[in-house]
Each structure stands twice: as structure tokens, then as C-alpha cells.
Design brief:
This is 6-phosphogluconate dehydrogenase. It comes from Flavobacterium chuncheonense. With about 130 residues, the protein is of the alpha+beta class. It has a 5-stranded antiparallel β-sheet, covered by helices on one side. A hairpin with a 5-residue loop joins strand 1 and strand 2. The radius of gyration is 20 Å and the shape is elongated.
Amino acid sequence: MSKFKKVLLYTLLFLIIGTSAYMAFVYYVPYSEGVRSGELIKISHKGYVMKTWEGEISQGISGAQIFHFSVEDGDDAIIQQLKDLQGKYVKVEYVERYRTFSWWGDTRYFIKKVEKERSPHFLNAGEDEKE
């Protein structure tokens, strides 16, 4: 094997391993983890070529502070829960990644758990009605 082919082979091998290591780091090592709550105002499946699930939670009465988040395609149970809780007050657990890629989602925040929460804005207004 010629010297040029060896250099080319090692360069390609280095690029493949480096890219794989970078993507694994971005996916598996979270920048932060946390919990947010608010009114779920949007959940949508959007994109031209790469469809991703995106949502928004209003964290204030006036909607001045909006939390934008993404949901991974494989999290079907979470996607269905979000659809069912549209317009309700929810609490979500999320992971913030260092970076995202277009096929993962638009934001760096990925929802890992969602549950219905009692709204602090309507404590005595019959929020506990059966659904």
C-alpha cells in the first residue's frame, strides 16, 4: 500500500471515529437537567425534510416567558401525553444538551417526562374537575 493511501485511510478513519465520538458526547452527556412547569400551549410535528416534535410551555400569566422544547421521535408515550394535555398546566422533566442536530430537534431541551400539574393561577376555581 502506498504512503498516500495509508495517509488517506488514517485520515478517513480519524474523521469517522472523531465524528462518532463527538455525536456520542453530545447525545449522552447532558449539559443540564431540570424541571419546568406551565401551560402547554403547543405541540407540533414540523419540518420539511426532517420532521421533529416541538412544543412550547407558557410560564407566566401573560405568556411573556415561553419555554421551547423538543421531543425525540422514539418517545411515543411522551408525545401522546403532550397531545392529551394540550392546554393544561403541566410539569416536564428535561435534559439540556450541549448542542443539537437538525434531525433531533430545533432546541437543546429534550423532554424526558411529563405529568399534569395543578395550576397555581386557579387554586380555587374548580381545577380538580373530573375529565
